[in-house]
Design a protein that fits this description.
4-stranded antiparallel beta sheet; 63 strands; 32% helix; elongated
């Protein structure tokens, strides 16, 4: 295993991604790997990894039970749960119970077999380790953020959600929710249970004195639970009561001088940890990396204590994500914390001081190099945008590192120490930046003003070259900095003047060596330590060696055939001279070549030498070479790092493999030999780790070879299939996962995230095998400027883009023939170019030599184009034919062909004007038609505008229902009075109206000038708001009559809903609707009065102040109405103009009132009744007594005829409080006089009769109530009139009950049992009830009704006899009912008819004729203005005569006479006696 190492940074934003067991073994999830770290009070050491997850590790927990502390569980965002054995580093079991990413996992501290996990959808799963079974619950449909099992009760689990909810569930009861803890407002980052059971520890605090003791959860007492949330509060909850007992807000701590990037927005994460054995102390993270210890028994500022106050720089500089504690054997308690600053710290909980710090890496380790001056000073270039400088020789702190981030905004891909100046470190980045850091000062780095276009791969210090070497000896630098980047350019920078422009050494190479051809892109360079020569590697695999200072080319090594990745010269200290000129080179072909250039360097040739054979060949790696380093302690000993995931030590002279290191997961990127220990080598790679290892302790001596070719071939096949599947994916990395450790891992790649520090596409391996990854696109796949080898966009290689179709496929296919044919083509072409006549049978551009047309004259090219066109036509690629014709200059023909084939596009259209206006116009029209077929109507209309065909464009848009766009176009380009504009508005309005978009249609009608239609369409919805808006619109537009009708409709709807204030507001906008306002005023007053009298229970939505109940004693309803009219509406007898009473009355007479029916709702009945009352009031103001009496009668009759007798009685009491109809108003001294007109006199009598009728019943029931109080039973004394009436056949029970309501509960005299008094009654005035004409009319009407019932009975019997019993099932019931009614009726003599049906029908018909004749003889006023039932009134008068001596004998006799004359039923006659 490795000696020391820097692991990958722990994953970010996970509630529990690290844990420590009782053996002081710390497990940390980083990327898709779990690192195992042995911790103590003084140091730590990475001892192993658990490799197997395919995606990010989102949770980790140890089993804390004795004998099982080596077991642990981890969760991943791929939905899997894995159980591990940390002793053997093996996977025990994998479970896939979740369908979505798992966000939290915890091994129960109580049950050694229970593991609980939760995912993003809210699913909680219980895993049983000993059986492998799982149980799923779904307590809440929320995103789970954290989860914690109780340390006291195995079944209790606390779950924290993203929305701030904390839920306590019982897993033994199928996940039943015990408590929902509400209080947090944002994500629950962490949950921690109190280490002790019971809830007595914190009761000493006065603010918690209200907590009741004795509360238990089941059979066990409760326990405290702490929660940390993104809302910056820590809350302590009682699990027994399900309530919060304490809330602690994070203290604001002023930041100390920490190294924090100011350009990065600080995030928030609040983790809480309850250490074992400390029931009153709670540890939590704070805003910017600080950690605080809370004393739960204190309050105020003394409640918390800050960690690391003994010295500066102990705290984290960024937010803390996880904390876990462990008890040492000596009793000390350690706390381990992980943070966004990529450091893990160990704290002593007794002193709250930091014991040690372990740096971690958040990206690929691209470069590592030891300082040639500062012994043991190791610099790391990492993909998390930072440089680490590690003093590896310090004894007090094994991980003494410093981080440098200022001025670096990208991955650090290259490093080089200055050869002589201590602490001067040059760096290169992924974005092409070159700079120099002075690591022993706090100054920001110097940045070169010359940037590379692509990634910097190599930095090297060397002697200055022209032009920097010119000048005086004191003015020129001793060393220049050289940088090589992905675009293939090497720049020379002046370290003393980095602000100056850097020079490209290619110019010097060209000038010195008189090179005219293009130089191959450079990929690496290495200066010989003595500065005499420099070796430059190229993209084509060639290595050029130049002599300084003019860069004369000495030799060219043409051994490699692939891109050169690494060049290294052998060191020249304490080694034989013959080794000083050894140059090792590594490329992408996996072989290392060592060249001995001593003879060439010591005796430079006059002309460049070409070397084709190496001095030594080192073979064994199975993938490309990324880095090499010569041992400073040995002669000719080399270490190499490769994409095969291993580092190999070689004896170069013997070409022997000495040792192979396989400790990394994934490919290696850099390697360097320790400058102080001959047996130690340092390596870094794509697994985010830096590892130190010893050569002598490695198990293997050679790289893995067993699966070399087989694995490579199989991976290529599988990867090609995977790529074809991924073509449907939106991006090369697939769907992005959550941000963890600054990066997002999918099943195949890591996709960049904000603040990631690592943006590489990172293949995650599921095993610890070091087999090479062919899909990996790491940066060091070297420095090619071509598309296939480009390094600035490595993700493009993950999924190969489909190659575009060739424009010249026929000639291109000729280049894929055998090698011999291709060579013969070169000879044939040379013959054509250098001879007057081509070889026999050779016609360039035709036949077998069609491809040679590209290299011959124009005629040959045209011949080749013709052949290519034929091929494209056969394949259906007409667009390619168009472009070929375009290239030949036949623009019109190209456009014509594109038009015919429907292949026109924007590019061709942009070229069309070159062929003339007519061709262009024709092409535009054709393109517009083509676009219409493709449903691109807007684009088609825009093109028509380009040739000034505006009306055609408008028609196109209108025909495809794009009215909005068409209108915008017309308004923008044509005059405002353009007829087509109105037509567009009208058509669009019709469409909108048909689809139900009335508001939009109204706007169209308004724009078209059709205000009437706009108001009508808005009113179509027929709700209050629409009618109000339509009325306002019509009024503003001058449509007066329509505005009035709409306002009236709206007001009626509001009035029906008892919403009086808006109803009046709607009508007030129209002056001509004053009379309707008066109508609503009367209706509102009537409704309020009836509600106040408790006759009706309807409540209004809104009402006016003047309608509120007040002192109305002795004031009639009409007097109150008149008062309100005068004060609120200005309407009185003296008003004139629009307020003229006569004009208002004429207008109101035009309003129709329907015939009363029992089906009309009470609210509507009140409106109709108030209409007649309004007319009566206006008639009063005009002194029209006849009309006044008629309208008052109609108002009372409307309520009576619609079935609301109690309301009718109350209205009579309100209109005539004294019971005298002739007294209309005492305030205004208004008395009604009977007139000569028959109808008015009849209406007056009918109205007076009904007033007395209601008063009579009121008096009667007052007497009955007094008798009831005195113990006299009403039923025992006399038969009830209601009973008599029922026996008589007249069903008055409902009417009498309603009258009783009026008397007892509707504002009558019986207000309480203690104060019952008999209302005075004018018995002589009651003679109006005993009307002879009305008694005769009612008797005839009863007789007609009885005959009609008999006729109906006859029809039923006839139907039964004719059609049988089955067809008239309901007949028996109807017959029995009718017969009973008939037999009990007053016309009982008719029942003595003979059994013959013919005689019965004849007699009934004759009787019906006789009765109808008698009805016709009666006066119309009797039938038009009826009285109450006279027979009924006679019975009541006779009944009252027994209890009241005020009933005169003449009145009694008159009643008896009417009964004997018009009542024939025996029961009625008996009751009268």
């Amino acid at each position: 295993m490795h000696e020391r190492s820097l692991p990958a940074s722990p994953n970010w934003y996970c509630s529990r991604c690290s844990d420590v067991n009782s053996s002081c073994l710390l497990g940390v999830g980083a990327k898709n790997i779990i690192y195992l770290i042995d911790v103590s009070a003084s140091s730590c050491r990475v001892v192993g990894e658990l490799v197997g997850h395919r995606d990010l590790v989102s949770g980790f927990s140890f089993c804390q039970h004795a004998g099982q502390s080596h077991l642990c569980v981890s969760s991943s965002t791929d939905g899997s749960i894995r159980f591990w054995d940390t002793d053997n580093r093996v996977l025990i079991r994998e479970q896939a119970a979740h369908q979505t990413p798992v966000t939290a996992v915890h091994w129960s501290p109580v049950d050694k077999n229970l593991v609980v996990s939760g995912d993003e959808k809210g699913v909680v799963v219980c895993h049983w380790y000993h059986t492998g079974e799982t149980t799923s619950f779904f307590p809440e449909p929320r995103n789970i953020f954290s989860l914690s099992c109780s340390p006291h009760t195995w079944s209790s689990v606390a779950v924290g959600y993203k929305d701030g909810m904390v839920v306590l569930i019982d897993v033994s009861k199928k996940g039943e929710v015990m408590h929902r803890l509400r209080g947090h407002e944002d994500e629950i980052h962490s949950l921690a249970w109190s280490p002790v059971t019971g809830e007595d520890t914190l009761y000493s605090r006065p603010e918690d004195a209200e907590v009741t003791s004795g509360v238990t959860a089941g059979d066990e007492s409760g326990c405290y639970l702490a929660s940390g949330s993104k809302d910056q509060t820590v809350r302590v909850w009682s699990s027994a009561r399900g309530k919060g007992v304490m809330t602690m807000k994070l203290p604001f701590i002023k930041k100390r001088g920490s190294a924090v990037d100011p350009g990065v927005k600080e995030r928030r994460w609040l983790h809480v940890h309850w250490p074992k054995g400390r029931p009153t102390q709670l540890v939590s993270s704070c805003f910017s990396g600080e950690m605080v210890m809370w004393d739960l028994t204190r309050s105020g500022k003394q409640r918390w204590t800050l960690f690391g106050t003994s010295s500066e720089g102990q705290n984290h500089s960024r937010i803390v994500f996880n904390m876990s504690s462990v008890q040492l054997q000596d009793g000390r308690e350690l706390l381990i914390s992980t943070s966004m600053d990529r450091e893990m710290k160990c704290w002593d909980l007794a002193s709250l001081d930091c014991c040690w710090t372990l740096p971690t890496l958040g990206g690929f380790v691209y470069a590592l190099t030891f300082s040639p001056v500062g012994s043991g000073c190791l610099a790391l270039g990492v993909g998390d945008n930072m440089i680490r400088v590690w003093n590896t020789l310090t004894t007090q702190n094994q991980y003494d590192t410093r981080s440098f981030w200022q001025g670096i905004k990208s991955k650090v891909t290259a490093l080089a120490w200055h050869p002589t100046r201590e602490g001067s470190l040059s760096f290169g980045t992924d974005d092409g930046k070159v700079g120099i850091y002075e690591v022993f000062s706090n100054k920001p780095p110097q940045i070169s003003s010359s940037y590379h276009r692509k990634t910097v791969y190599t930095l090297a210090w060397g002697p200055p070259l022209p032009p920097m070497s010119f000048g005086a000896a004191g003015g020129k630098p001793s060393f220049s900095l050289y940088s090589c980047a992905g675009e293939g350019v090497i720049l020379q920078h002046d370290p003393s003047k980095l602000s100056g422009e850097a020079s490209d050494i290619d110019k010097l190479i060209r000038d010195t060596n008189s090179i005219k051809h293009k130089l191959s892109p450079h990929t690496d360079l290495s200066w010989k330590p003595d500065g005499r020569v420099v070796a430059i590697g190229n993209e084509d695999g060639c290595i050029d060696v130049y002599q300084a200072p003019d860069l004369k080319l000495l030799c060219s090594i043409q051994q490699h055939h692939k891109i050169i990745n690494c060049l290294r010269w052998h060191h020249d200290h304490s080694s034989p001279p013959e080794l000083h000129c050894l140059l090792a080179s590594g490329s992408s072909n996996a072989a290392i070549f060592v060249h001995d250039l001593r003879s060439i360097i010591e005796n430079p040739p006059e002309s460049p030498v070409v070397l084709t054979e190496p001095f030594r060949r080192l073979c064994g790696h199975t993938s490309k070479i990324t880095s090499m380093s010569w041992s400073p302690h040995h002669d000719a000993r080399l270490v190499s790092a490769s994409y095969d995931g291993t580092a190999q030590v070689w004896d170069v002279l013997q070409e022997a493999a000495l040792s192979n290191y396989r400790g990394h997961v994934g490919y290696l990127l850099c390697v360097d030999w320790s400058p102080v220990d001959p047996d130690v080598i340092w390596t870094g790679g794509k697994d985010f780790t830096l590892q130190e290892w010893r050569v002598s302790q490695q198990e293997f001596t050679k790289p893995p070879k067993g699966k070399k070719m087989v694995d490579l071939k199989e991976k290529k096949k599988s990867n090609s299939k995977q790529k074809s599947k991924n073509k449907k994916a939106p991006g090369p990395g697939g769907d992005a996962g959550p941000e963890v450790n600054g990066g997002t891992v999918t099943q195949k790649v890591v996709t960049p995230q904000e603040l990631s520090g690592e943006e590489e596409e990172d293949q995650v391996r599921s095993t610890d095998s070091p087999a090479p990854s062919q899909l990996a696109t790491f940066e060091m796949q070297r420095k090619s400027s071509t598309v296939a080898k480009t390094k600035d966009k490595p993700e493009l290689i993950l999924l190969k883009k489909k190659k575009p179709r060739s424009m010249l496929p026929v000639s291109t296919s000729m280049d894929h023939r055998p090698k011999e044919d291709l060579l013969q083509d070169c000879i044939t072409l040379a013959s054509i170019k250098h001879s007057n006549a081509p070889p026999a049978g050779c016609v360039p551009g035709q036949g077998e030599h069609v491809h040679l047309g590209l290299f011959s004259d124009r005629q040959a090219l045209y011949r080749m184009f013709e052949a290519e066109e034929e091929g494209h036509v056969e394949a259906g690629h007409y667009d390619s034919v168009v472009y070929l014709r375009l290239w030949t200059g036949d623009l019109e023909g190209a456009l014509q062909l594109a038009t015919e084939k429907g292949e026109l596009n924007d590019h061709l259209l942009s070229l069309a004007p070159m062929a003339g206006f007519e061709v262009w116009s024709r092409t535009v029209e054709a393109f517009a038609r083509q676009l219409c077929h493709q449903e691109q109507y807007l684009k088609a209309a825009s093109h028509l505008l380009s040739i000034n065909k505006l009306y055609e464009a408008v028609d196109l848009l209108r025909s495809h229902k794009l009215y909005r766009e068409a209108i915008a176009l017309v308004k923008a380009r044509l005059p405002a009075d353009e007829p087509v504009l109105k037509e567009l508005y009208t058509c669009w309005a019709a469409v909108l109206e048909r689809d139900g978009h009335f508001s939009a249609a109204a706007k169209c009608y308004l724009a078209a000038g059709a205000s009437f239609d706009a108001a009508k369409v808005i009113a179509r919805k027929n709700d209050v708001s629409s009618l109000r808006s339509a009325a306002s619109l019509a009024r503003i537009s001058g449509e007066v009559s329509l505005a009035q009708s709409l306002a009236l409709r709206c007001a009626k709807d509001l009035a029906a809903a008892q919403d009086w204030v808006p109803a009046q507001d709607v009508l007030s906008s129209q002056d001509s609707l004053l009379v309707h306002r008066l109508h609503l005023c009367v209706a509102e007053l009537l409704g309020a009065t009836l509600v106040d009298s408790q006759v009706v229970s309807q409540s209004c939505v809104s009402s006016h102040v003047w309608a509120s109940p007040g002192d109305r004693h002795g004031i009639s309803f009409q007097e109150r109405v008149r008062e309100v009219w005068d004060q609120q509406f200005g309407v009185s007898q003296t008003s004139s103009g629009q307020h003229s009473v006569s004009a208002l009355l004429q207008e109101l007479k035009a309003v129709e009132s329907p015939t009363p029916t029992a089906s009309v709702p009470l609210r509507q009945v009140q409106l109709y009744c108030s209409l007649h009352l309004t007319r009566a009031m206006l008639s009063w103001l005009t002194d029209d007594d006849e009309q006044l009496v008629k309208e008052l009668w109609k108002a009372v009759a409307w309520l009576r005829d619609s079935g609301h007798f109690c309301v009718s009685a109350e209205l009579c009491r309100l209109l005539f409080p004294d019971g005298d109809v002739s007294v209309c108003s005492r305030t205004h001294l208004k008395t009604l006089h009977t007139t000569e007109e028959d109808e008015a006199r009849a209406a007056f009598g009918s109205l007076q009769a009904f007033v007395h009728y209601y008063n009579m019943y009121q008096h009667w029931w007052s007497i009955n109530s007094i008798q009831t109080q005195n113990g006299i039973s009403h039923n025992a004394t006399d038969p009830s009139p209601a009973t008599q009436e029922k026996e008589e056949g007249i069903d008055k029970e409902k009417e009498i009950e309603e009258i009783e309501i009026v008397v007892n509960g509707g504002g009558g005299v019986l207000e309480s049992e203690e104060s019952v008094s008999i209302a005075p009654l004018d018995y002589e005035a009651m003679s109006v009830l005993l009307s002879e004409p009305h008694a005769a009319s009612q008797a005839v009407q009863r007789a007609v009704g009885e005959i009609q019932d008999r006729l109906a009975d006859m029809m039923v019997q006839h139907s039964r006899a004719q059609y049988g019993e089955k067809e008239v099932d309901n007949a028996p019931t109807q017959t029995s009912t009718t017969t009973e009614s008939t037999d009990n009726g007053q016309g009982s003599d008719d029942t003595q008819q003979g059994p013959e049906e013919q005689e019965t029908l004849i007699s009934l018909s004759s009787k019906m004729s006789e009765h109808q004749k008698r009805l016709a003889e009666l006066p119309d006023t009797v039938k038009m203005y009826p009285h109450p039932d006279v027979i009924e009134c006679c019975l009541v008068v006779l009944h009252l005569s027994k209890t009241s001596p005020c009933v005169s004998e003449s009145l009694q006799q008159e009643a008896r006479d009417l009964i004997s004359k018009h009542a024939t039923h025996p029961s009625v006659l008996k009751a009268s006696r």
